[in-house]
Specification:
single chain, about 260 residues, mainly alpha, 12 helices, globular
């Protein structure tokens, strides 16, 4: 649980220590909790840019989760969501969309259950639309996701998703040429992230860069400097740590012919 909380704050190095230690212990003990740990570990590896490892981890997580919690559990839906996020990170909008649509089809909304898997899938589809160069569809999807979050009784448990929805809505509006309409959504997203995240959080940096881009589009160069500078510092710091991890890893063996 500690690693999950640290990961949610965007502290990737601290999360890695906690999560990797927990997964190793659960694997050694052959406990059913391993599947849950693998889902979180796969999410972390995607955030770190370790895509090949994330692919393997999430492939192992699927059967492990299904064996303990069942194929129709919310946790199994999260496996598909994380696989979709991995596809997005790899630039595969179509592959990601297929996974997110599967979640929306196979996990219908239930009033007495958290909408987390569906909201995450909706936001994933918004990101896929932006990746595919379709800001109009992205705007529609972000507005729908934000409406669901704002009216859902489980809203207090969805602060990260609400901040992401606002950031994606603002980004879609900006890319559609509506920088003025985008600004309040992006400012709200940054404000929410500042309350939720660590200083060097990648998602906080993402929100800050989106706001800076919007302010530049509005001709507010001076105002854009602060969020842009903070975001660039965070991204540089994260990239340096990631480069160190990659250099420390042994080279992959050459493929067999």
């Amino acid at each position: 649980e500690c690693g999950t909380i640290v990961l949610a704050r965007g502290e990737l190095d601290g999360a890695a220590r906690e999560i990797d230690r927990a997964v190793a212990a659960w694997r050694a003990a052959k406990t059913g909790v391993l599947g849950r740990g693998l889902v979180v570990q796969g999410r972390l590896q995607t955030a770190q840019g370790r895509y090949a490892q994330a692919e393997r981890t999430l492939a192992e997580a699927g059967p492990a989760v299904a064996a303990v919690w069942g194929e129709k559990s919310a946790l199994h839906a999260d496996v598909l969501v994380q696989q979709g996020r991995l596809r997005l990170a790899q630039g595969d909008a179509d592959g990601a969309s297929a996974l997110f649509r599967r979640v929306l089809k196979e996990w219908p909304h239930k009033a007495d259950e958290t909408p987390m898997p569906r909201v995450q899938a909706q936001l994933g589809l918004v990101r896929a639309s932006l990746l595919a160069g379709d800001p109009a569809s992205a705007q529609d999807g972000a507005q729908a996701a934000l409406r669901q979050i704002e009216t859902d009784p489980y809203r207090p448990g969805l602060p990260d998703q609400e901040a992401e929805a606002r950031m994606l809505l603002g980004t879609a509006m900006l890319r559609s040429g509506h920088a003025g309409q985008a600004r309040p959504h992006l400012e709200a997203a940054v404000a929410q992230r500042l309350r939720l995240d660590a200083a060097h959080s990648p998602v906080l940096a993402e929100a800050r860069l989106a706001l800076a881009e919007d302010l530049l589009a509005l001709g507010l160069t001076a105002e854009a400097g602060a969020p842009r500078g903070s975001a660039t510092t965070a991204q540089t710091s994260n990239a340096a740590r990631q480069d160190g991890r990659l250099r420390a890893q042994p080279a992959a063996p050459a493929p067999q012919r």
